[in-house]
Amino acid sequence: MDRKIYDAAMALLRAHGPGAVTVESVAAQSGVARTTIYRRHKDRDAVLEAALNDHIVSRVLEPGADIWHDVLAVLNSLASTFENRVSSGIFIALLDEQDPEQVELIREKFLRSRVGLVVARLRVAVRQGELRPDLDPEVVADLLLGAVAARFAYAGTFPPAWAESVLATLRPALEPHPGEPPA
């Protein structure tokens, strides 16, 4: 039952933004009665928060043995999210900011948590000497997200091997210099 509710809420959020996530619309989309939704969740904000929490838990970054493989996976995942319009309603809501509380909820549950996973992985790579010791992992995460967002904004698509090209461009600036000790 919860799966139907959360899937419907996320589909509405992605397609139309947070304003579209109401108990009535989630009930219509999911086929779950409004009364059942209200028994589980106080209001639409509680439905959206629960759906976002569920979404984040199901998409934990699984770090690999190689930071470059992980960065490439992040770039490809972000590009796929944009290209397949999976989160267009979410990003429109962030730009529009008509409901500041819901925008902050989306930033906290959807974006900051995902970026936080990438930053944590980058920090481990700095400590292990895979990346420069003076690197700011938050700036690197911004660069990765920014590259994807900028490419999508002006082109609407990603050519084959685009992520590999971004990584090849950034890698020399991120790698430790020969003989440089880890952080």
Description:
- This protein is an all-alpha fold and 183 residues long.
- The protein has 2 domains: 2-54, Homeodomain-like (Arc Repressor Mutant, subunit A); 61-174, Tetracycline Repressor, domain 2.
- 71% of the residues lie in helices and 0% in strands.
- It has 9 helices and no strands.
- The longest helix is centred in the middle third of the chain and has 28 residues, at 100-127.
- It is elongated and about 65 Å long.
- The mean pLDDT is 83.
For the termini, the CA-CA separation is 48 Å
pLDDT average, as an integer? 83
How are helices and strands ordered from N to C? Answer: HHHHHHHHH
What is the level-2 CATH architecture name of the largest domain? Answer: Orthogonal Bundle
Query: CATH class of the largest domain, anyone?
Result: Mainly Alpha
Radius of gyration: 19 Å
Q: Would you identify the regions where 5 or more consecutive residues have pLDDT less than 50?
A: none
Helix content: over 70%
- The overall strand count is 0
- Provide a count of the helices: 9
Instruction: List the domain count as a whole number.
Output: 2
Beta-strand percent range: under 5%
Structural class category: mainly alpha
What is the approximate shape?
elongated
The largest pleated sheet is described as:
none
